[in-house]
Amino acid sequence: MSGPLAGREVLLVVGGGIAAYKSVTLARELLRAGAKVETILTDAAQKFVGGVTFAGLTGRAARNELWDASYSGELHVELASRASIIVVAPATADLMARAANGIANDLATATLLCAKSSIVYAPAMHPRMWEHPATRENVARLVARGARLVGPVIGPLASGEVGVGRMEEPEVIARRVVELASSARDLEGVRVLVTAGPTHEAIDPVRFIGNRSSGKMGLAIADAAVERGATVTVVHGPITARASHHESITRVAVRSALEMQAEVAARSEDSDVIVMAAAVADYRPDVVATHKIKKGQDRLVLELVKNPDILAGLGAWRGANKRPVLVGFAVETGDLVGYARSKLSRKGCDMVVANLAEHGFEGDDNTVTIVTRETAEEISRRPKREIADRILDAARTFLDSSQSRG
Ligand code: C5P
User: Any idea where the domains of the chain sit in the sequence?
Assistant: First the structure.
């Protein structure tokens, strides 16, 4: 069988949710891409779909029993070792909770615990379950260990409500598996510098001017880049989000825009890609009071001066050779593509990731449009970690073209 997954062993783990019926289509898509597909159904999955359907499609018996009498060895060890990629679809809240906690009380979770290969989770659940802190923590732990997420996406749910919790379409999941199979370490040797979070501009020793920014988008980009083999440095302003999941990321903490500018400038020569995800304060107080300003008078006038535009400075500095690749962000309230294009040329960068102000500050999901001079790709609401991969995919195309130029 030819196709992008030709000869690859893919293990499909089906959890117990209504979306399990779509996993039949997913199995077919994976087979169509050339993969050899093995299936595990959890007990709950068997209430929604039958093993016979998968067996008929894949030509291999669908597995369920940890202690399979038809098998003499340890089935979970064998299945985990054989798979080059594992896809969990639908990944229910329960299945991910067990996997995140190392519970191995059925064939699906015992196999996941033995896995050495890449694991892709396609979550599907009610939005309240998806947003629950327990699920958030479990998903973060799985991602920290290198798992990939596809979806969930927004849309009508089995309950009749609309929200984030719908499993991504099988065709999209299969495409991500193909991408993962071919591009897992596609940033090996690439040096990526990411800025994240806000900057705080001191007014006096206890007060500051700052922007709303959790830093999560920048950190997601850093995590994604390091998992794809890049050498990653994050220069971050004051953030409360966990600094990063990966030990190997170099972290540089700064407070103000001027400090951020200095730390970025010190590293720009040694970077292949710079992603300016930080929400840099545009102005800073002209004079920083050395003592706490007392609340005496009814009106207080602060004189502000403009901060340097770090990204525009990099754009001007790199000049015509277009190295490093420069990625900017834009938070707007309308006409995303129009403003992003003007920002592209004004700041001399290659790509601008634009999002609407009402999306994306503190949350784990975002909706963005990736704008280049020629293209504008809208990515509907999905986890920041997944958007991070799409941003890196786009940045990589500039890297390839600037490499080929010389
Ligand atoms: O002009 P605006 O602030 O909308 O541009 C946002 C982009 O420019 C972001 O990538 C941000 O990190 C960067 N920026 C910067 N220095 C500033 C302001 C914004 O690098 N002083």
Answer: 9-182, 191-405
